[in-house]
Design a protein that fits this description.
The chain has one helix spanning about 15-25, and strands at about 1-5, 25-30, 40-45, 55-60, 65-70, 70-75, 80-90, 100-105, 110-115, 120-130. It is mainly beta and about 140 residues long. The two termini are about 15 Å apart. One of its GO terms (molecular function) is protein phosphatase 1 binding. This is PP13G phosphatase.
């Protein structure tokens, strides 16, 4: 069967205004289900004056190593600015493996994280029986 990355965290839908105000950065949406070769999503940030940087930090080996990927600006939806990201998935990922990620926003006002309340966001690599090559008839 084909493999897909499936979110292993509750779907909070649109981030609440209070959560965004408190954290200044929130995962907005994650493409579902994520393709076997990448995971895509959008982030909201409460912007301020000056330069800003939004990155997504992710790992496949329980944080023994990680990669920081820059997120690209998207059209804003006031009061938040929006950014899009793509995480590249290695072809060696196997069923049961996990991709963990957190979002970082840096600006002159400070550094802010959305790490799913300290648990990080997790995508699990799962088999999807209907998405693989057609099985031969019995």
């Amino acid at each position: 069967p084909a493999l897909l990355l499936v979110p292993d965290f509750p779907d909070g839908g649109e981030p609440g205004a209070e959560r965004l105000r408190r954290q200044r950065v929130c995962l907005e949406r994650l493409g579902r289900p994520a393709a076997p070769t990448d995971a895509r999503g959008t982030v909201q940030v409460l912007g301020g004056p000056g330069p800003k940087e939004v990155t997504v930090r992710y790992t496949f080996n329980e944080w023994l190593s990680f990669v920081d990927v820059p997120a690209a600006p998207l059209p804003p939806e006031p009061p938040a600015e929006r950014y899009g990201f793509t995480l590249c998935v290695p072809p060696s990922l196997r069923e049961g493996s996990a991709l963990h990620f957190a979002i970082r926003y840096r600006s002159p006002q400070g550094e802010f994280w959305d790490n799913n309340g300290g648990r990080n966001y997790t995508l699990r690599c799962c088999g999807c029986p209907g998405a693989g090559p057609a099985a031969a008839p019995p």
